[in-house]
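step 3/5: co-fold with nicotinamide-adenine-dinucleotide
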Amino acid sequence: MRPFTEQVVLITGAASGIGRTTALAFAAEGALVAAADIDGRGVDGVADEIAACGGRAVPLRADVTDGRQVEQLIGQVVREFGRLDIAFNNAGVEGAPVRTADVSEDDFDRIMSVNVRGVWLCMKYEIKQMLRQEGGVIINTASAAGLVGAHSLPVYAASKHAVVGLTRSAAVEYARKGLRINAVCPAVVRTPMIERAFTQFPDLLAATTANNPTRRLGEPEEVAAAVLWLASPDASFVNGVAFPVDGGLTAQ
Ligand code: NAD
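step 4/5: write tokens
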């Protein structure tokens, strides 16, 4: 039997990049995947890809910044599959690279809204469901920028530090209720989010790889592998960690 057979997994930001790759990885290991994203056509495509590989997925359109939509999203997952075993709160946005004094109020609000409010809202309704079931696993996507400062990405870094704070706090609160809550902290990973930044700022690729001990970018599959391990029973005593998947970037 495959490790996640019949396990119900919700993934936000599933239309692209790390979320899409993790959705495919869970489905390949037998999970029933609820693929959620604000990009409805994107998640339709991911669900089709999963079905083409013999897996089962439902595409769900939701904006994680909207509490009503998030509550409805969790309700839809439970109606469709009967429960929610694993949630990967991964939807996020980057900011344009600017220093602290030059960040606009609009950018501050946009980044905090998706990256912090969105993760918190998802946790809020997932935890309620997991308490009813007396168990569940949550993994949030923070970032290496949730562990150390990030030059010219101050609000993004602040938002990801907040994700780590939410993760650690909830992990402590619900440890005796059968929940495990952890975060992954990737360094720069080759996804559409990063390809956009490299197109806009061509010097960024060389600077990014030079800064990493491995002298390369991460691949979405390497993040997905860490998420699947954190979600598995092999990680049964792992709770409240901010798990770097960063080639040693934050070890420097
Ligand atoms: P991506 O842009 O490829 O995918 C992000 C997905 O989130 C998109 O499909 C987008 O539609 C969705 N999304 C955005 N706002 C949303 C909203 N309000 N509601 C629902 N969905 C929404 O990016 P990615 O690189 O795969 O990033 C995934 C996560 O990983 C993000 O949280 C990002 O901050 C984090 N991260 C990425 C990197 C990297 O280098 N790529 C490094 C560290 C952390």
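step 5/5: annotate
The chain has a mean pLDDT of 97.
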